[in-house]
Design a protein that fits this description.
The chain is of the alpha+beta class. The chain has helices spanning 30-33, 109-119, 130-154, 159-180, 211-219, 229-232, 235-243, 278-302, and strands at 6-16, 23-28, 38-45, 50-61, 64-77, 83-89, 96-99, 187-193, 198-201, 226-227, 248-257, 262-272, 308-310. The chain folds into 2 domains: 6-107, Lipocalin (Beta Barrel); 156-310, Beta-Lactamase. The chain contains 8 helices and 13 strands.
Amino acid sequence: MIDQEHSRTKYFRSFAGYKHPVVPQDEVSLRDAKRLATYYEAVFNTAGRLVKFIKHLRQTDTTGEYWIKAFSEVYVYWDNGSVKRRTFQVDGHTDQVWEFDKKRTRWTDYIDGFCHRWFGSVKKDAEPSLAEKSLLFHEQVTELEQTLLAACNTSKRDAHWARQTTTELVQSFREVILQMDPYEAPLICAAGLGMEEVQFFQGFDDPPPNLFGILLEQLGDFKKLIVFPRIDFDDQAKAWAQQSELGAVLATPVMGSDGNNLIEVFTVFLLLQSEPNSEQVAVMNSLVRRFAILMQLIVNQAGIAELYESRRDL
């Protein structure tokens, strides 16, 4: 086995988890990491291989604000660099351990099991096709739905629950998108139109400055399914999109009840740096719509007031 000595620690906003070891994404300083709702700590050995990966989650309750470890992954390697052992750790739970031989492909057991269930055999290719990825993504969102439904039945559904659940859901959804394109830096934002201003919702990413004002100016509303700002906007707004590194915006409404009718409460936005092709648009749009349904469940359980925060500068 190779030397497991730790050589350095880095911090990241997100990661791609379609293979193991996972691939950390969007490196930040520790100072900037602790300004986020969630960040990831990656420890590398002297050979530059990831040996420990930790998800840190900000928590807030009556005692104040603090950080917890949501989970950690520990990797041990063979001398050829392939993973020998993967250990998944969550405080209060028994460690999950996977052992691999030297010829192990980079597919995780989860993906192998998924492919066996859907396609009748374990994949041997380096990566799945887009069609197979689509099924995998929807399987992951289904698991998110099951987790959220369980949380609705077992947790006190107050402001703390709503914001924490939203934050976790946003991060999980981001990880699904990163599996489609590990080089993306997706932002998941939410806003609604109030009487005098755009309403911003907590638990989501902060959008680029002036995003919602420009969308309203260019489109008149938020209802267009997908927008390519560098193509669809006027020259001045195209320049803004280029500077903001904004290649595509996918939007879908979150519905809720006003006591009598089902109404549009706010809109969820998926912001991408690149311009996805037609196949990617179809998959991402379907995923965004399913994500909006999960948000609708949170709203109906806790109420919109638990997510709303007035922000005039967006």
